Amino acid sequence: MSVLVLVVDDEPDMEALFRQQFRRDVRAGRFDLAFAADGTGALAEIGAARGRDIILLLSDINMPGMTGLELLHHARALRPDLPVIMVTAYGDAATRQAAMERGAAGFLAKPIDFAALRAEIDARLAARDAPP
Fold this sequence. Notes:
The protein has 132 residues and is α/β, with parallel strands linked by helices. The protein has a single domain (2-129), classed as Rossmann fold (3-Layer(aba) Sandwich), CATH 3.40.50.2300. It has helices at residues 13-21, 23-27, 39-47, 68-78, 93-101, 114-129; strands at 2-8, 32-36, 52-60, 84-88, 106-109. Helix 3 (39-47) runs parallel beside helix 4 (68-78). The model has no long low-confidence stretch (mean pLDDT 92).
């Protein structure tokens, strides 16, 4: 079973940025990256994830159509075990509190601290590979 990190962001350059930051991990087969430009695409990706273990969902909060907070609600309904980290350029306390109250596992501000994100992914991989 392959391991997947799903990134949801309406900014087109985010996919290239993530691919650049994690290219060695992807090449080494540690995990794969999947991308969706909106909440609807993310929900479709979650539904189609047969045979792949999604270990983390990273979602922008401010997106057209379905917001990241709405996606958080729907994603948690589909997969209560799926950790969701919210990402935003506007890290105000009210938004952070709303995300955490709705079940977010964490919160990252843009620009993304990729060292912190790498540590989060490493922790998720270690927990997945730990003996029961």
